[in-house]
Amino acid sequence: MGLAGSSIGSTVWAVVRIALVAYVVVVVLAVLLQSYLLYFPERRIEATPQLIGLSFEDVTFAASDGTALSGWFVPAEDPCGVVLLCHGNAGNISHRLDSIAVFHRVGLSTFIFDYRGYGKSDGRISEKGTYRDAEGAWNYLVQNQHVSPSDIIVFGRSLGGAIAAWLAGKHIPKSVIIESTFTSIPDLAADLYPYLPVRLLSRFKYTTSAYIAHVACPLLIIHSRDDDIIPFKHGRRLFEAAREPKEFLEIRGSHNDGFLVSGTLYTAGLQSFISKPIQR
Known about the structure:
By secondary structure, this protein is an alpha/beta fold. The N and C termini lie far apart (79 Å). The radius of gyration is 22 Å and the shape is globular. The chain folds into two domains: 1-32; 41-275, Alpha/Beta hydrolase fold, catalytic domain (Rossmann fold), CATH 3.40.50.1820. The protein contains eleven helices and ten strands. Helix 5 (159-170) links the parallel strand 7 (152-157) and strand 8. The relative contact order is 0.11. It has an eight-stranded mixed sheet, sandwiched between helices.
């Protein structure tokens, strides 16, 4: 019995050691590969707004640190505002034609840009870099396109929502729309990887809930209960963290296609929000 017990004990400890080593390896990989888990840039521009029948201006401008960035200015006839569109973490501006079309239908011009390392933009992606890129996009609209801040609607979807909230906390646009966005990267990571100490390991913050508390203009939060990547509770918590005036639009559909699946529910919600008189 003694020898058998010793053998079993040795086997248990061997399994425990293997499990611990495997866990440590996973943790180390999580630290080293964070940027690859967060950003999925693509360089190839697959289409332009011409594909959906819209004229546009191909724009090159500078981020606030001088990095050369690329974007499109898509004008609408007699626009009721200009959307500064901060896109999500994958692809590039050529994968956002559906959003550009929606904004055009509700009477908005659109300025969409690629973060550094995406599309034709120079540089290498980073959290600080994305903020500098958004600041450069704002400066381009105000200084080069001569758009008044009171006519700019800052919009961000998914990761872009955090960037949009940061930007709107630094300026006072006409309004802000945050769609399918997390409260912070550590919060989201804790939901996705509950078995890892992600709050301690995360090198990226994107603290949308903190940024949104500083937004001093009308705000619309959009989220779907069916979101398969960012849980609905994140949208509700962002709404709770925000100042008045604020609205919440619940849509349906998954993370990437909710705005399309929701159809008129989505466009009617946008139209209602942007047509209201400015409240401060």
